[in-house]
Specification:
single chain; alpha+beta; three-stranded antiparallel sheet; 3 helices; 7 strands
Length: about 180
């Protein structure tokens, strides 16, 4: 009888040892698998990574264009402000005869830029930056009325007289042709 109990204990002990051995072996293989570096990325991961890098480069280039355009606009606007301030000083310094003042040439606003956008009804709408003010057709700048804005320039009118201010050269454009 005693022998039977010993065999049973021996069998249970060997199963437990086999379980520990299996767990240890699996643990060893798992650690070995986790420590080895992967051979490389899949094609789809490389494709997405390349697309993200291209998008970053494109955004950086667009940001540089925008900065250059804004710098150009600010330089032109600052120059226009200097001209405007100097012309105001000149007119306040000189005492002009009221009759001569009526025939004196008109000081046209400075056109800094023209923006084209799609309106809600699908037509192209132009906006002009005159003396630092965003204007639409029909708006007034001082005593002048904006009659027409196109990519070529702005047509202004006052009392039956019409003036045309040519559009500045492009410093920046987001035209999608």
């Amino acid at each position: 009888m005693k022998r039977r109990g010993n065999n049973r204990k021996l069998l249970i002990g060997s199963w437990i040892m086999l379980g520990f051995l299996t767990a240890g072996l699996n643990g060893y293989h798992l650690l070995a698998l986790m420590d080895t570096p992967l051979a490389g990325y899949s094609d789809s991961v490389r494709f997405v990574d390349r697309g993200i890098r291209q998008l970053k480069n494109l955004l950086a280039a667009e940001n540089e264009k925008i900065e250059a355009g804004l710098n150009l606009l600010s330089e032109r606007y600052a120059a226009a402000e200097k001209i405007k301030a100097s012309s105001k000083r000149e007119t306040t310094k000189s005492s002009v005869d009221p009759q001569l003042e009526m025939v004196a040439p008109i000081a046209l606003p400075v056109l800094t830029g023209i923006l084209s956008k799609w309106s809600t009804n699908g037509e192209v709408e132009h906006l002009a930056l005159l003396d630092g003010i965003v204007c639409l057709e029909g708006d007034r700048v001082g005593d002048l009325t904006v009659k027409r804005i196109s990519h070529q320039g702005v047509r202004l009118a006052r009392g039956g007289k019409v003036w045309f201010i040519e559009a500045p050269e492009h410093g920046y454009s987001l035209a999608l042709h």
